[in-house]
Design goal:
Blueprint: E1 4-7, H1 9-25, H2 29-46, E2 52-55, E3 60-64, E4 70-76, E5 80-88, H3 94-97
Parallel strand pairs: 1-5
Antiparallel strand pairs: 2-3, 3-4, 4-5
């Protein structure tokens, strides 16, 4: 069953902030980060149950971006994959738990 994708505003803000940071360092790098995060999100939508599970209720999972040190956190629902946080790997795990 194909689930629809929902990206919460907080996750969109995370992506925008990270892309701006990288873009300020090197032109085009912000776009590359955004593409990599979108690719990771697509992998999560394609195979949502194959990623590392962090919590059972709600079903919270995490997928890693391949090129950049970012973790994408999402909830698997019967009808949707809900991305709620995109967090740099150096940040504490508490950052995503506050968004649930």
């Amino acid at each position: 069953m194909r689930r629809r994708l929902i990206v919460r505003a907080e996750a969109e803000a995370d992506i925008l902030e990270a892309a701006q940071w990288y873009e300020e360092r090197t032109t085009g790098l912000g776009w590359e980060l955004t593409c990599e995060i979108c690719s990771a999100i697509q992998r999560a939508v394609d195979r949502p149950l194959s990623q590392f599970r962090l919590r059972v209720s709600p079903d919270v999972r995490r997928i890693l971006a391949r090129r950049f040190p970012y973790r994408i956190f999402y909830i698997v629902r019967t009808d949707a994959v809900v991305v709620f946080a995109v967090i740099h790997a150096a940040r504490s795990d508490r950052a995503w738990t506050q968004r649930l």
